[in-house]
Amino acid sequence: MNKQSIFLTSILVTSVLAGCTGNSIKQTSDPIAVTQAQKISYPVTLKGDVVDNYFGTDVADPYRWLEDDRSEETSAWVKAENKVTFDYLAKIPYRDQLKSRLAELWNYEKVGAPFKEGNYTYFYKNDGLQNQYVVYRQKDGGTAEVFLDPNTFSEDGTTSLGQLSFSKDGSIAAYAISEGGSDWRKIIIIDVETKKVLETPLVDVKFSGISWFKNEGFYYSSYDKPEGSELSAKTDQHKLYYHVLGQPQKDDKIIFGNTAEQKRRYVGGTVTEDNRFLLISGAISTSGNDLYLKDLSKPDSPLVTITDNFDADTYLLENEGDKLFLVTNLNAPNKKIVTVNASAPASKNWTDFIAETKYVLSASTGGGYFFTEYMVDAISKVYQYDYQGKQVREINLPGIGSTSALEGDKDESILYYSFSNYKTPGTIYSYNIDNGNSDVYRKSGAKFDSNAYESKQVFYPSKDGTQIPMIITYKKGIELNGKNPTILYGYGGFNISLTPRFSVARAVWLEQGGIYAVANLRGGGEYGKKWHNAGIKLDKQNVFDDFIAAAEYLIKKDYTSSDYLAINGGSNGGLLVGAVMTQRPDLMKVALPAVGVLDMLRYHTFTAGAGWAYDYGTAEQSEEMFKYLQAYSPVHNVKAGVSYPATLITTGDHDDRVVPAHSFKFAAELQAKQAGNAPMLIRIETNAGHGAGTPVSKTIDQYADIYAFTLFNMGFKVLPK
């Protein structure tokens, strides 16, 4: 170990020990008074002397060493920070009360919609507080039995089930598992009848589907294992492989992505339901893809180009023999469905099948029909079409909210969908494709009185006058007196839409008398590609302005005030919170950035981060882009002498999507420069990743901590209710 490493370790170990001797908040009869009168003693975080130069401008990066997730120094820092954070949280008087209520409300049986594969009908079920959903199966209405139980994959419930895919006749299953929340996967192949593992699992698989060709094998995607840390090292050349059952993984054939000409950051392969075609999609960022076709009925058939640029998003929805049905936003920002013959599939030959409308389209197929879902101000409307493009009917949804896709095999006569909104637990409906009737298949067992709450959609002007929709949910009869604890949530990026869906964790917040507001910011996909593009690169500030305007609206209308407002978002939404809290620290009492992209000058150097450049741009591409990123990058805009709102940063030590170094560096900056007494804490979940597959027990703990921290720093000595 070099001298700097010895020095770092010495400082950090001292910090860990100091936490055991009163370095955190001391217990008194009034813990709130303590937080207002006394600053927290944070672990000492060594500053290094790393400086980067961008277009002649030097930019210091004093906490670069925290990017090394494998170092003893970083590990010691994580332990020290968690010690301070959990000491603080343990002194909040109603933290355990919130945890108990979360567990109580979470504890009901949850069952997913059934689906058929081979001789069995499968469904996912969670008895209540199981860390992971269990896959069950039954034959011909017989007794259901456990097929896969991910709760047995690891002792602590941190190994989760990813994709589950069946061979053509349903006799073989391949499923992916994630360990510790990582995006890296293993694929395990089993005989369906005996559940016996058939061969050595495939390893080092990432950002992959599992698409079967008959019963012979399947297509999957991955990167070469990177040098250095697999949790943070850059991965930018994705490859599509074909695995023949029974052959060693080392012999799997690379189908696409192995040459410089085919270098893509994201590659996927999908086999059509009739096993006739393989569709290969490639992308260099999270927006836009090229698309290729291979005729699997001819073993040596060449790849045929459908689109050869990244100007639009296009994918295959369905085929009927040689007739392809494609969904695209090429010259159609809100998407449309087109048809083309597989023999000449270039875009010049496309014919509109279902034309673009003023609302954003999502499409699916099942039972020999097409289903189009449109977002009308972030609310779902669904229509059924036949294969000639004739509209059969609008589907009568149970109310105002969001629905899952209606999809299934062509020979199905009954399809299933779920429906929910911010105050209504999800209910599964069966849909008769012939008469259009929806019937309740399974009601939610959540013990939550939806009738006691209401959701209201409002539109408010952003800084430039653009009207932004927001849905506000709260207890009926609430008094608009500016004193209601409120969480404002946003995302605003990557063409992702925030549509109304129920959450047990959100329900507990509402029960406490809390208001939950969700703003549909630019950068998202609620109004199509134009809405997305209005919040990217040199227009990214629009997203932050939209969020600030949402907060100002809630305050102006007396839903809440700055003393009772918290802002929250995860991933790109974590960036949103970090940017807004550094730009307007006066606007909110609490900031809750989760797994955030917070170092905008270096985000693209980690794992697959370079693929986000469509939304963000990079610091190297131009001096203008560098200056723009530097001007809002949360890590680079924490100012000494400023009083920032109480902040609880959350991340996972196995997050290889948005590496935890973003959060580490932001926490270090805030702790070093905070002028006020509000706490600047970071909660680092161990053996956890970006969020998917997180065990229920960890999720409950995390929300209890977030809500307790939020209410405590708003001044509540007891739960508000």
From TrEMBL:
EC number of the protein: 3.4.21.26
UniProt keyword terms in alphabetical order: Hydrolase, Protease, Serine protease
Source species, domain of life: Bacteria
Catalysed conversion reaction: Hydrolysis of Pro-|-Xaa >> Ala-|-Xaa in oligopeptides
Peptidase S9 prolyl oligopeptidase catalytic domain: residues covered: 501-711
Domain Peptidase S9A N-terminal: residue ranges: 47-443
Enzyme class label: hydrolase
Keyword field contains Membrane: no
Residues that span the membrane, as ranges: none
The keyword Hydrolase is annotated on this UniProt entry: yes
SUPFAM superfamilies noted in UniProt: alpha/beta-Hydrolases (SSF53474), Peptidase/esterase 'gauge' domain (SSF50993)
Cited Pfam families: Peptidase_S9, Peptidase_S9_N
PANTHER family: PROLYL ENDOPEPTIDASE
Protein family according to the UniProt entry: Belongs to the peptidase S9A family.
Protein name: prolyl oligopeptidase
Organism of this sequence: Colwellia marinimaniae
